[in-house]
Amino acid sequence: MNNKQIDALIRAGNNTMKCVDDGLYLRIARGKPSWVVKYSIGGKRSQIALPNAYPSMSISEAKMAALQIREEVKLNIDPKSKRKAAELKSIRTVNQLFEDWYQSYLIKNFKHPDIPARYYRKEMKRHIGVMAVSEVTPQHIRLIIDTVVSSGRQSAANKTLQYAKQMFNHAIKLNLTSYNPAQAFTPKDAGGTEHSRSRALQKHEIHYAFTILNQQSHIFTRDNYLACCLLLCLGCRKGELISAKWEQFDLENQTWHCITNKKRKDAPTETIVIPLTKLVISWLEELCVRSAGSAYVFPARRASKRRGYISDDTLNHALAKIFGMKVDSKKKPYPNFLPDIEPFTVHDLRRTCRSLLAEIGINEQIAERCLNHKIQGLIGIYDRHNYYEDRKSALQKLSDLVEPLLP
């Protein structure tokens, strides 16, 4: 069969299959031609389409491909199985392992997959990224951990070790290596046992710190300042606040339908109605103007395809700068603008809120509900009351206490 004959069959438009050579056929279906090779293996007949169709693959090229398939069949190699194996993603280096772990596991199971991704890219990639997965040894893991520890970031060292273990467990699942080079290490080899923070600001510290934060607007922006004020007076989690949309707020009825943080991506979404005081509403009204029509209360300050609100690190880094900490390797740190108090973090404002609620005599159960803490045991299971009016009264008392402390 030559090109003219094939072209004539295509023009005819009939569905057909014509033998061209030993085992090689031209198939025309719905007016489209393709090459098919028929063969028998293990006593069973089968067929496989060549990857390219006529005329992209000429008659002579199709004959050569069919000949190669027949030679492989003689060696008991099934071309279909060979093609399936070739379709599997090739993972050789640690960088390729990470990308597969990120796409196939982290995105599906982590609410914030970019957190382990950040630890890999910042702490691990430069040490082992280009290495073959099977060549990574415990000595490489120790070098990574020691490098993080030497920078004074014990907590980061523990997180790095944790994610290294998870990533190489993924490699074992894929049969890329027979052992996990990070498995034998414990927190004692990294940052040590971590202890829960207990930092809570006293009233005089609140007045001092927030006065400075308000004055240093060139470092700590007005949006950052208002975010900290809201965290102090609402006791919500940072992630819940910075990701909030304006559609969740009813300023007329003084409520926020807050979508609570989920520990896992597949966990059901829960909402709690948070009462808003006049002080809080005044801040939100200002933020509404500052957001310039964005759907988010704290819109992203740089163009981002990932999300429309500020980064999880924005407030933390801004506060660290105020305390003179180095957060940018390319820039010289600022002087410490708060030398008279112990450094605190954004999450410490939530603990401060809880401590102030206790100080003004709010019942423990109501205070815990204000922070949307899960009540443990049978009470948490059977008591489904939302205590809205009690929380409203408690947050109003808290606002009355905090307002004179803020500039």
TrEMBL record:
InterPro entries: DNA_brk_join_enz, Integrase-like_cat_sf, Integrase_catalytic, Integrase_DNA-bd_sf, Integrase_DNA_bind_dom, Integrase_recombinase_N, Phage_int_M, Phage_Integrase
Record keyword DNA-binding present: yes
Keywords in alphabetical order: DNA integration, DNA recombination, DNA-binding
Record-annotated Tyr recombinase domain positions: 196-396
Pfam families named in the record: Arm-DNA-bind_3, Phage_int_M, Phage_integrase
Entry's family note: Belongs to the 'phage' integrase family.
UniProt protein name: Prophage integrase IntS
Native organism taxonomy: Bacteria, Pseudomonadati, Pseudomonadota, Gammaproteobacteria, Vibrionales
Gene for this chain: intS
